[in-house]
Structures are given as C-alpha cells and as structure tokens.
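Lay summary. Proteins are chains of building blocks that fold into shapes, and those shapes determine what they do. In this project we predict the shape from the chain. Here is one chain we studied, written as its sequence of building blocks.
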Amino acid sequence: MKERGEATTVKACGHLRRSILVVSSLFLCCFPLTLSARQNHPSSQTLSHQSSGTLAKAQSALAHGNSEDAIRILSDYLQSSPGDSTARTMLGQAYASLGQNDHAVEEFNTVLQARPGDYIALTALGEVYEGEGQPQKAEPLLARAATASRGNPHIRMEWAVVLVQLHKYTEAQSALAGLSPPSGREERIGFHRLEASVALGLGNASTAASEMEKALALKPTDPGLAVATAVAEMQSKNWRRAAGLAEPLFSSTHDPQVGLVCLEAELEMHADFHHTLELLRATQLTTTQELELHQRAAELLISHKKYSESIEELKRAAELDPQRADLQFDLALAQFRAGHPGDALETAEKCKELGDSADLEDLLGDIQESRGDSLAAVNSYQAAVALAPNEEKYSLSLAVDLIRHNSFEPARVALKQAEELHPESWRIQLALGMVEHFGGTDDAATKYLLRAAELAPQPEEALQYLGDIQMDRASAPAPAAVAKLCQYSDNQPNDGHMEYYCGAVLFRRDYVTGDKTHAAEILRRLHASVALLPRNDAAPHCQLGKAYRWLERWPEALAECEDCVRLDPGSANAHYRLAQIYGRMKQPEKQRKEIKLYEAASTRLANENARHEATMKTFLYTMRKETQGQKEGPDHQ
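And here is the predicted shape, written in a compact code that computers can read:
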C-alpha cells in the first residue's frame, strides 16, 4: 500500500552516504601548529643565550620523536625559569605528543593565566581538545588565537576545521575568507579538502567537487583522494565522473566501500550494475563486515527500486544474524515490493516471532491486502494502531483500507478516535472530509476540508478536493468554500488549478441561483486557468463550454466544448453538451454523432459513478503518499 521501501531506504542511504563519505575524515585534515611558528611570536622577554640553547635542544628532541628527553630538558630548565612561556608551551606540546593531555592542559593554562593572548598556547590547547573529540571546547580557543595572531592563516584553517566539525559552515567560510592555498603540496591538498567540506556543508556540491578535483590533481595516484573525490562528484550528481574514479580503484583494491560508490554511481546512471554487485558479493570479509556490506548494498538497491536484486542481499544478511528483527522486516518489505506477497508474508511472520511492532503490523496489513485477505489486513492495521495509538500514520492506514472497501462508517469512527489524539492533524481532517463525502454528507465534508486547508502547510490538496465537492453538489456551493478557494487563488495568481476551482465554483453558485452578474469574473478566471494549466487539461475548457452555453454565447460555447471533447473523449456529459450546442446551431449531422457518442459513453459507466470512483482513487493515492511521507520523516522532505 505505502512506498515504505523508499521511505526506509532514503534514510538508510543517508547513513550509507555518510559512512562512505565520513566527510570529516575524507575531506578534512588538520593543520597542527609547529614550534617553528614560535619564531614570529612576540614575547615580552628577551631570551638569554643559555635559554635559547636549552630550548633548541628540547625542540630538536621533539623533532626526532624523543618527547621524554624534551620533557626532562624543559622540566629542569623551568625549575630555574618558571616564567618562560615559550618553554612551558613547548613542555605542554611534548606532553601532548605522548598523549598525556592532563599535563599538557595544565601547562597551557599556566601560560594563558600569565599571557591570555598567547596565540601559540591558545592554539595548542585547542588542538588538544580537538584531538580528544571536544570541538566545542577547541573552537573558542582557536577563535581567540586567530584574533590574537592577527589572522594567522595556519590558525584560521585549524579554526575552520573545528567549525566544520561543529557544522558551523557559514562561520567556517568566514574564517577562510581571503586565504590563499598554502605553498606546500600536502598543506595545499588539506586546504582544498577543507574548502570542499565547507562547500558541501553549505549545500554547494559542485564547488565541493571542484575543490576535491584540485586536491586530486596535486596527488593523482593517492587512492584516498580518489575515493573522496568520487564521493564529492556523486554529491554533485556527476555520476559518470564518480564511476570513472571509483571503478578502476575498486578493480585494483577490491575495497567494498569503493565498490559501494561504484554501485551507487552505476545505479544513478541507469547503467549495468550487476558486475559490480557480483564482485561485492565475492569480497572476502569478516562476518561483521559482510553483514554491513549486504545491508548497505540492499539499501542502495531498494532506493533505486531494484527490489528483486535487494532480496538476495537481505537474505544473506538475515542468515548472518537471524536474531535481527530489522533485517527480517527489510527482507519482507523487499519481497513485498518485488511482487512476492507469499514470501513477504512468511518473512514478516518470522519477524513477528522476534518481536511485534506497529511498523510490522502495518506492513502485514499491506501484504495481506495485496493477497486479497481484507479481514486479516484490517486486523493488522488495527493492531498497528493499538501498538502505537499516538502515531497518526497507523490510524490513516487503517482508515484508508476501510475506505477502499467502502466501509465508511468504521473509517469515520477510527478517524474520530485519531482526531481526539491529533486535533491539529490536517491529514486526519482531510481523511474525515473525504469519508463524509463518500458517505454522502457534503456539508460535513466541506467543514472538515476547510479545517484541513487551514492546518496544512501546503493546502492545495485539501482545496482541490474541496473544489471538486462543491462543483458536484446538487445545491449551491457553500459560501465559506467559495470564499476560501477564491481567496487562495488571489494569493497564488500563477496557480492554474486554483484559478480553475475558483472560476468553477463561482459558476456553479451563479448557475444554481440564476445570477449572471459575475459572468465576466467567471470567464476571466477560467480563461486564466487555460493559460496556466497544461494544454492537454480538458477541465477548464469543459467549464468554459458550460459557462458560455449558460450565457448563450454559442460560438464560444461550441469552440470550448469541442476542445473539451477532444481532450476528454470518454466524458458522457461532454458529448451531451456538445450535441445540445450542435442542435442549437443547426448542425444535425454532428448532433446525431455526438448523441451516439454520448450513449456509448453512458453505457460504459454512469458519469456520476465514474467521477466518484475517480475521486476515491485519487484520494487513496494521495493518502498513500502522505503516509509514506510521514514514515520518511523530516530528513527526507
């Protein structure tokens, strides 16, 4: 019933892309401040020959990886010169290099107590916190260091790295503004990676791809750069370039993460992906790695509606961990979407043995409905509601299924119960309105649909149903409905559908009362809808034909009704109206032809029933989309 496969997978593929991408690790790199930066650091003290020699020894020890020697040298020296901030900062860096961060933090804070603007100590302390995975502590220190150093490029880049880790991309962009790429190759690569990460965070995928291409050009044989660039190109929807980078790398390394990049690029290009999929399946991995690979491959396949191919991946994943209910659920879903409801039912029942849930009962309802077991489907939907009474999507699933079988009163009861829990839900108000309409109570339907239009962030769907109901009423349209439709149309002058509905309900109102004083406005709105809607839309032409016939403007009525019949040849009413106009205009041959076409269309299906059926089908389709959207959640909007 619902496109839950896509809903589940969109979210899963979001996680998949992040796990392949891991933007922080693929795009970012750090710019640790070296001790050589100290040479340009202003100091309030003049170093003696002895101190400079001592510090040079310590710096040399650090440079050769002998941090313990550096600590011994600096600790001895600081016994006699405790106020030497250069030595104390160097000691903190030596501690940090050994992972003794508590000692490092203590030394840096001692320096900062005496010299709050010491940007070397600020930066070094920020780097310690960054290395500990505490970017929220590192960021203000690096911000102060950037100011104190008067915009030192190295520190600004390190600050930008932390800002990206905190997802503060606009601030990171400002931190990098005006900086030129460093001269060294590795530093320049890191700079372009950083720029790419900022651009991607700001939603500019093409700039991110361009920056990664610049980084790759500096080191074209680097496999890590190649895969990061491929991922960036995928984000920019340059599937062919992404595949061109990833495919040779996958062939040579058999890295499953690279293979997943290939698979996604091929799926996006609608290319043959089966060879890549077979290579992925043949990759030798640990059980944990293999489980993750099959699950991720399945997620990608389902997101591209390759349900049949995903089944093998999910079966293997479920075999590797048979106690994972989520894997059984995904397998049942894939089997259902692939058109194998019997297999799906069997798998879903296995899943239920591991633990029941509202989602599972909802899926069982879909499966059973597709198998023609409507009673079992209703029971499952009711079970979903019982398991999660506070989630409106399950109440909607139950109501939609009852409506499908013309069980309008039970659907109304279910929706009224849901309304008590969700009084501000526009979806429930919409469903209640349509249940009342299908049950023949258009006044109540109008009330609910007006409420739905007030609550919905995008009220067009509710308003279109409202308009259809007003046009079909035997009595004049409800004044509140006419006012709402025309008010919305006035606020959305480029919306052809709303112009059509406003003009049509105005015509219906005046036709019933015989008032022709608003004829000019009716014609203006309907003609505007013709200009705004697609050329193959028959509705505005049919309404114009009726309006012109009512006004006895026969040539215009003839032209519009001929367009109506041409665009909607199956409409019995359209043929009947055209036959009347041909009779009025003394064209008996054409009149007789239209009468025959009218009789043929009428015998196929009564027009009122056909319209009712079409409205119900449209509504059921709308609600399927809405319940799917609710399952996707805000990340997929």
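What the prediction tells us: Residues 31-38+50-179 form a domain with the Serine Threonine Protein Phosphatase 5, Tetratricopeptide repeat fold (CATH 1.25.40.10).
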